[in-house]
């Protein structure tokens, strides 16, 4: 069997790649969650904040102006590090489909979670969701979905 020299291998690879390979288009969806149902459903200990605490929620979702209701979300979070981090799984439900998200939510700072899939108009969804608390009470959050 004949082997390629390094320059020939580089040329073969360059010819195999598309000449105009562009970065994938990003679709941004900006929403607001009103956190009205967040509840600790299961306590992992006797303190106010414990490893293993389970938080559940089903909240309304509004447009970026926080005026028009556009859907809802539901999910579950487990406290992993007291006062620092939760591991969350949630589903955004809109009229044209669902977007599923998973990852760590950090206390007191913005967080980025992975978009792991979707249904309807969002089948095959990938990307990230950025979460930003709108106030110190965490009564509402800005959700920024970046779909690729």
Quick synopsis:
The chain is 7% helix and 53% strand. With 148 residues, it is mainly beta.
Proper CATH architecture: Beta Barrel
Distance between the termini: 42 Å
How would a crystallographer describe the biggest sheet?
A: 8 strands, antiparallel, barrel
* CATH homologous superfamily (4th level) name: Allene oxide cyclase-like
CATH fold title: AOC barrel-like
H-E string? HEEEEEEEEE
CATH class: Mainly Beta
Determine the mean pLDDT.
Answer: 90
Low-confidence stretches: none
Q: What fraction of the residues are assigned to beta strands by DSSP?
A: over 45%
Count of the separate structural domains:
1
Number of E-state strands: 9
What does this structure look like?
By secondary structure, the protein is mainly β. It has one domain (24-147): Beta Barrel (AOC barrel-like), CATH 2.40.480. Helix content is 7%, strand content 53%. The protein has one helix at 6-16; strands at 27-34, 39-42, 54-63, 69-81, 85-94, 97-106, 111-118, 127-133, 140-147. Strands 1-3-4-5-6-7-8-9 form an eight-stranded antiparallel beta barrel. A hairpin with a 3-residue loop joins strand 4 (69-81) and strand 5. The radius of gyration is 21 Å and the shape is globular. It starts with 5 loop residues before the first helix and ends with a strand. The mean pLDDT is 90.
């Amino acid at each position: 069997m004949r082997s390629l020299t390094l320059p020939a291998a580089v040329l073969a690879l360059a010819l195999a790649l598309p000449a105009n390979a562009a970065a994938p288009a990003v679709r941004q969806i900006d929403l607001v969650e009103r956190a009205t149902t967040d509840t600790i459903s299961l306590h992992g200990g006797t303190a106010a904040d414990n490893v293993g605490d389970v938080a559940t929620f089903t909240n309304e979702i509004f447009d970026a102006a926080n005026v028009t209701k556009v859907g809802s979300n539901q999910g579950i979070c487990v406290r992993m590090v007291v006062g620092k981090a939760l591991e969350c799984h949630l589903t955004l439900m809109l009229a044209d489909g669902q977007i599923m998200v998973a990852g760590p939510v950090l206390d007191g700072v913005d967080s980025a979670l992975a978009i792991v899939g979707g249904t309807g108009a969002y089948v095959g969804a990938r990307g990230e969701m950025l979460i930003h608390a709108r106030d110190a009470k965490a009564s509402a959050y800005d959700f920024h979905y970046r779909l690729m």
